[in-house]
């Protein structure tokens, strides 16, 4: 009898915990856009099963990749280190250690590595590995999760604050809450001032500037879309939707300089997140679950190429995700895509043999 009472007590305790325990999120009801599914031009294929791997010497999860003018490869790992790979000797070396979590990165005209660190803000790392903090806040509000970055020809650095409310370690809370906690920011290296260009973005993620430098793109991960902010012309200072209704969560974005934006989808859309979109109370319950029971990225490798009009022109996938998956960035150097991942202990290489105009 005592055992029975004990079981009932535990069951009631778990029930009460799932229903009433305080959580760090205040979810809102929303309506997901139509899911185009992986059909037609988005049909699954096995092209990314051909990805080659450069195993990392230590740690894992090179969220973004950058390539310098000498062809050396850089990746920021989950132990805070920015590693550099020498293709000639096929060896990794520690380039710098941010003591945070380096995410998006790119080079400026002076060959400084500009890095978004999830905890340290916007950083600049010179070729000797010396780190300078460029920005930690904008318009009086701290940068909560510096995510991705691109540098314009005039030197202005455009970068994203994915969520000023939730940290990188707690990104699932931001997804379950589904509030516009993200921003698109611009840092001027001359005035050393940071300006907020766009507010109320739903996890502001990848950032890329157009070839003509007239607009900058920023991914809204939780809304499955890409927003365009106009830098020049009659629409200067305004924004619109560049790509909408993606079949998954867009992460990084890059411009290959030849009219193609590469956008990896870190995972297909999650049925639980879409189903509970209009059920904030249920999402609070999900938030109380152990992390391994919460929605998580699926191992389906996806990199899509869009032209500068927003049309899909390349569809690279491996629906099994066996060789390389959870792809968070895709950077083109010459005829190769260099792939980052939030899970892999390697950087991926994919040769672009097919013409850009074909799928």
3D structure, described in words:
This protein is mostly beta strands. The protein has 4 helices and 27 strands. It has helices at 2-20, 171-177, 271-275, 280-288, and strands at 52-55, 65-67, 73-76, 81-86, 91-97, 102-107, 113-117, 121-125, 131-135, 137-138, 141-142, 146-151, 157-161, 182-188, 193-201, 204-209, 215-220, 225-230, 239-243, 248-250, 254-255, 260-268, 301-307, 312-318, 327-333, 336-341, 346-351. The strands form 7 sheets. Strands 20, 21, 22, 23 and 24 form a 5-stranded antiparallel beta sheet that branches. A 4-stranded antiparallel beta sheet has the order 1-27-26-25, with no helix packed on it. Strands 2-3-4-5 form a 4-stranded antiparallel beta sheet, with no helix packed on it. It is globular and about 50 Å long. The termini are far apart.
Which features would summarize this protein structure in a list?
Neuraminidase, five-stranded antiparallel beta sheet, four-stranded antiparallel beta sheet, 11% helix, globular, disordered C terminus
Quick overview:
11% of the residues lie in helices and 41% in strands. By secondary structure, the chain is mainly beta.
């Amino acid at each position: 009898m005592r055992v029975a009472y004990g079981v009932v007590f535990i069951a009631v305790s778990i029930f009460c915990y799932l229903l009433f325990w305080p959580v760090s999120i205040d979810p809102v009801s929303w309506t997901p856009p139509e899911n185009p599914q992986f059909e037609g031009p988005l049909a699954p294929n096995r092209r990314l099963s051909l990805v080659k791997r450069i195993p990392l010497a230590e740690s894992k999860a090179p969220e973004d990749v950058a390539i310098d003018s000498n062809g050396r490869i850089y990746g920021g790992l989950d132990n805070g280190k920015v590693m550099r790979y020498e293709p000639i000797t096929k060896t990794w070396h520690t380039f710098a250690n941010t003591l945070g979590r380096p995410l998006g990165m790119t080079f400026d005209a002076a060959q400084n590595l500009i890095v978004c660190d999830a905890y340290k803000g916007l950083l600049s790392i010179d070729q000797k590995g010396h780190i300078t903090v460029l920005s930690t806040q904008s318009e009086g509000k701290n940068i909560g999760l510096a995510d991705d970055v691109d540098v314009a020809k005039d030197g202005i650095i455009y970068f994203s604050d994915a969520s000023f409310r939730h940290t990188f370690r707690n990104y699932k809370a931001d997804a379950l809450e589904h509030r516009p906690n993200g921003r698109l920011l611009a840092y001027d290296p001359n005035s050393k001032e940071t300006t907020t260009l766009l507010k109320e973005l739903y996890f502001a993620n990848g950032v890329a500037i157009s070839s003509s430098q007239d607009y900058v793109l920023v991914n809204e991960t939780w809304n499955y879309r890409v927003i365009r902010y106009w830098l020049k012309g009659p629409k200067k200072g305004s924004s619109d939707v560049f790509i909408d209704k993606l079949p998954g969560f867009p992460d990084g974005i890059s411009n290959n300089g030849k009219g193609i934006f590469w956008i990896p989808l870190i995972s297909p859309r999650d049925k639980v997140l879409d189903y509970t979109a209009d059920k904030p109370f249920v999402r609070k319950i999900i938030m109380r679950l152990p992390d391994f029971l919460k929605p998580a990225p699926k191992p389906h490798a996806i990199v899509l190429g869009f032209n500068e009009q927003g049309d899909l022109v390349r569809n690279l996938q491996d629906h099994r995700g066996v060789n390389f998956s959870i792809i968070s960035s895709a950077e083109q150097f010459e005829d190769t895509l260099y792939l980052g991942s939030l899970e892999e202990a390697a950087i991926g290489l994919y040769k672009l043999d097919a013409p850009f105009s074909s799928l």
